[in-house]
Amino acid sequence: MFHLSRVATIAALLTASAATAEPVVVEYLIHQKAFKAGATGTDTLAFELYEDESCTTQIGSYPVFVNDPYLHFFIDKRQAVAGAPKLPRAIRIHAAIDAPTTASAPYLMVTGPGVAPMGEVCQLQAGSPVAGSGPTGAQGPAGAAGAQGPAGADGVQGPAGAGGAQGPAGADGAPGPAGADGAQGPAGADGAPGPAGADGAQGPAGADGAPGPAGADGAQGPAGADGAQGPAGADGAQGPAGADGAQGPAGADGAQGPAGADGAQGPAGADGAQGPAGADGAQGPAGADGAQGPAGADGAQGPAGADGAQGPAGADGAQGPAGADGAQGPAGADGAQGPSGADGAQGPAGADGAQGPAGADGAQGPSGADGAQGPAGPAGADGADGTASLVVEAEVSQFEDGSSTTVTLGAATDRVCFLTTVDAFEVDATGERGSCTVSSDGANWSLTADAGSGNSTVNCSARCLSW
Prior knowledge:
Blueprint: E1 24-31, H1 32-38, E2 44-50, E3 58-65, E4 71-76, E5 90-97, E6 107-111, E7 123-124, E8 391-392, E9 396-401, E10 404-411, E11 415-425, E12 435-440, E13 444-450, E14 457-466
Antiparallel strand pairs: 1-5, 2-3, 2-6, 4-5, 6-7, 8-14, 9-14, 10-13, 11-14, 12-13
């Protein structure tokens, strides 16, 4: 038995919805044969919960590795009924995922390598994902305010008050004689700077700056409504596949032909435009001084020049020595100090007054008149043209063992569908062929899983993009 690897895979793991604090348990039945041959421990399975039995309204998507410790695979042996077709072996996937509980039983769809659903692709979950209670009711009105409690006990007495005011200061004593002059102080600080000079001439304008970045794209317009789905066309009968013919031997390379003669030289191109003048070169060094000529004869004396400007004042002479200090007069007697005033006695702290009752609320004033409507603002700029959003739809799988089955993927308008998984297996003889096909008749897309004329096994998956 051989395994034909997948020829195309386009994975799109959708973002999960908000989850509750505790995980929920889900189960899903798949074919044992396809899963055993197609899945490895490092592969990822996508668990997608939906609200409806056709798996169109999604609750959330939860990717889980095949070797996750909370993901288990059980082989269920189902009892065959006399006279009924033989049942293929099934695997029951048992997983704990972080998904929200719902008010009604959700539906589960699992996709990934080797996953071929047993029975319905969208399987009902009637266990722990269902909430045990209904939605929370509206909050009731607030209760009435309680009665006011009694007044608290008086606080402890505060600290003693500040001392009384200080008595008046005594009269100043007579001033003593003036002391000797002190040494000359340092030179004073420089005077304030003069006014700023006039501005120089304006330089040439600088080169233009680089253009700014392009503005952000406008908001995306809403997607247009889906057109009505046309009726599905009848599937044509599939003819048997012809055998491939043997490949013929490769032909010998032909001899190389002689090189062609050189073409005639074309006419000379026109002279290019004259470039701009180059910058002036740097100034050369000064030449050597020439030899000194003979002294000329003295000229006649000219008239006397005008008197020159008066020179600056001469520096001040050095300071003479200080005169001798005069005799110090007797110190005057200190004035008598007035007596300090006695501190006033502190009065007792007054008791806290009782709290008066709260005043009644005043009547509500009348509503003010509506203000006049302001002038209309200027019209905004037109937004950028919207683009249709691209929706990645859920993957659809079809398993076939010994025959051919075609399932409809939906309307062909504004949609494109493609294969994502092709797995084919020989069962007991060589030459058995299976195929997976995605096709459109102009009105609808369809997925065909064909086991061929033998009893090979095929597992096909497809996904659609809509806009």
